[in-house]
Every structure is written in structure tokens, then in C-alpha cells.
Amino acid sequence: MKHSFFLIVFLFCVNAVNSQNIYWDFYHDCNLFVIKEKNDVLKKNNNPLPLWNFIQTTTTSQITDIQYSGFFNCWATHNSTGLVFTTNSGTSWISISFYDSTFTTSYNGVYFINSQTGWAVGGAMQIRKTTNGGFNWVRQIPPPIAGVLNSVYFFDQNTGIAIGRKTASFNSCVLRTTNGGNYWYEIIATTSNENELFAQFWSNSSTGWICGRNTLLKSTNGGINFTNYYSNIPPVSNGQNALLSIHFENPSTGWLGGSNVDHKNIYKTTNEGLNWVFQDNPVAQYTYSQINDIWFININWGWAAHGTPFSGTILFTTNSGVNWVIDDNTNTWFDCLWVVNDANIYCGASGGKIFYTGIPASVKKINENLPQKFSLLQNYPNPFNSVTNIKWQMLNADNAKITLYDLTGRETAVLVNEKLQAGTYEVKWNAGNLPSGVYYYKLTVGDYSEVRKMILIR
């Protein structure tokens, strides 16, 4: 568990955290859900100063990992012997308990390869598998090692990696399976003590990274062997550097998040991990500040989930981490991130809260020539499955707004709302969790407006 680094201080302070509604000041026109204190899921509506409304989940425990599976299903492990699950995008939640008289432990990681098959891992080397969407879970038997598992990942239905620590020495533990978890075996990745492993990131079935306390491992053969890259990270003053999260956007460029006494909580590499450079950010100066998770959707746009014993923030960057800004600043410990189709981002936090938001679409100018009139063109492809493109023409400079509506006329999203120069523009829209059906999109520029119909097919 990532909270173990400052667990004593955190437990002292967590009862003082109060639930509250939150405003975010960056996204003006997108749906947003965020996990909040006291078991709340907050939804950001489509208006310039969005209010976060919320739904309660069925746990008040800390969310430790989250994954989206299918169009409406989301699984989240928590530190109270189980998971919470939704089949309707968070309108209601189902609680699954793995409690028995032998194993009472937190669950720290979850991973689904499709909507039916997934694994969950946790304390006491617990590994559970489902093959029917989570209705039934079967305990899998790990090697005879006492310890804790923090993360699990599968390349396909057969090959997977689970990581954590051993109880006796807090030494790293890496388990691998090639038959869906029916048999797990241990890989000796490091030999020093007190180097618990927290997170893993795999670019493909061959290349992956694992990070932990004073540890940064890389594999180029699917986890059969690892090389330690930790010496490439600038040393910290007391020699203790907890690396809690990792993300690579391409083979060369990646980020690490974590915590140490020097407040160096975000690092970036541009040469495949050979060198790492600290990226300053608004929370780096906080005492016991740590980056629990980090995720980029392209080389420029990324988010980081941050927590201290006293508060938490979600950081955001649009320039590859050169500058980080605070998207949300509350008395909440933010712990884990998950992005779906570059359209929605989820964030898990203390108190059993899960947030998610629509990621704003980017407008692209595709023609500098001056059009003869304002015009809204038919989207393509149409019908479409999840992703489509909308093109329009601007006769002169003005504010352009493109609004989406469902068949009943209810506004579902605002894709564009900004001042544009004359020319031809295009925006890509990902329908995310929306169900199949007929939708309308409307262009408004001054007194001009035009509406067209599109069809979403799942």
C-alpha cells in the first residue's frame, strides 16, 4: 500500500478531514466525477463554474486502486477486505467482501483484461480471480511467502505480474504466471532489504517498469528478468526515496511520482530512464507530500494524484510537466488514477470516493483559407462507435460553441466554447460512457446556429 510510507501520521490526521463540495477551475465544459471524503462521488456539470455533486459508494474505506471495465463498469479495491463495483457509471455501487476468518486484509490492486476476467490482490499475499464479471471470485494460491501484494497486471488471459513486499525484510516481491494465475512463481528482482514495490507500467508485452522504495526496475522480456535503474535517479539526502507511481508515454519519455525528505516528488526522463530530472510543482514544498499516481494521455497532457496527511490535490499539466497547476485542492488524500479512451479520467481517494471527468476535446485548425459562410458539416464516421469527428467553418473571428444533446433535448456535453479566427476547424469527440442512440450537435456563432444529427452504435 502506498500509504505505508507515512501511515502513522496519516492515521492521526484522517479523522479530522471534512467532506465538502468542490469547485474545479480548469474544465469549463466537461462532465467530471471525483472521489471525495465521506464516501462521495462528485459530478461536475456542464456550466462555466461547475459544482461537484456526489453519489455515495458502499464503502467508507480508502480506495487503493481503480479500473474501468466495459462502458459502464468500474472496479475499485479498498483497504477493508474487498472491492466496490458499479455497472451504471456510478449511479449505484455494489460491495464485494472477501472477508473470512482466515484472511482479513486490505486489497490494493485490481486489473481486468476484459469485462469478464479480472484479478485483485492485497495483503497476506491474497490473489483473487473472476471470470464472470465479478459475480464470483476464486482464490489463487501464491508461492509460500508471507507478504503483501500492491499491484497486479496481465498482458493477456495467461501472463501476468503481481508485485509487493515480503513481511520479514520488506524486501521486494515479484510474482509471475503464464497460465492465468493457476500457478504463480517468484522472480528475484532485487536482493537488498526494505525495497517494497508499489507500481508497475507496461508499454507492451515485453517492455515494462516497476518502481518502489529505492528501486526502479526495467524488463524487456515480459518480466522474466529485470535490471535496476535506480542509480540513474539523483540521490536524496537521507538515501530513502519512495517511488510510488510510474508512467511512460513513449519508449523514451516517462514520469515517476513519489516522496522523499528533499520534496523531489516528480521526476521525468526523455532517454529511456538513463537520466531523470526533478520537475518542480505547487505541492513539492509540502511536508510529507507524495505523488501517489501519475498518468499522461499524450506527451503534453498529464495528471498526478497527490496526498499529504493533511490534504490532497490533483495536479495537471499541458506542457509535459514543465509547469504543473493545481486542479483540485481539498482535505482529501488522492490515491489512484485511471484513464478511459482518452475521454474520461478517474481518481480514487480516501473515504471510499471515486471521481471521474470527461477530458476536453482539442480543437484543430485544418484550413487557413477564408470560407464563404459559416457552416456545420456532417460528422464522420456516422454512424460511429465511440469516436467521431466534427468539422465546421468560421466566416470571421468570433466565439464558437458546439453543444451535444441527446434525443430528448438534454444537454450532454459542450465540446467547444472559445474564440476562433476565420478558417475551417475540426474536433474529435469520444462518446465515452454514453449509450447507443441518436444525438444532435449544434454550432452557435453569434446569431448563427446550425444543428445536425449523428448516431452512436455500440
Descriptive terms for the model:
Immunoglobulin-like; 38 strands; disordered N terminus; mainly beta; 458 residues; four-stranded antiparallel beta sheet
Give structural notes.
By secondary structure, this protein is mainly β. The chain has two domains: about 1-360, 7 Propeller (Methylamine Dehydrogenase, Chain H), CATH 2.130.10; about 365-455, Immunoglobulin-like (Sandwich). About 0% of the residues lie in helices and about 50% in strands. It has one helix and 38 strands. The protein has one helix at about 5-15, and strands spanning about 30-35, 40-45, 50-55, 65-70, 75-80, 80-85, 95, 105-110, 120, 125-130, 140, 145-155, 160-165, 170-175, 185, 195-200, 210, 215-220, 225-230, 240-250, 255-260, 265-270, 275-280, 290-295, 300-305, 310-315, 325-330, 335-340, 345-350, 355-360, 365, 375, 385-395, 400-405, 410-420, 425-430, 435-445, 450-455. The strands form ten sheets. A four-stranded antiparallel β-sheet has the order 4-5-6-7, with no helix packed on it. A hairpin with a 4-residue loop joins strand 9 (about 120) and strand 10 (about 125-130). The longest helix has 7 residues, at about 5-15. The chain starts with 6 loop residues before the first helix and ends with a strand. Mean pLDDT is about 80; it is low at about 5-55.
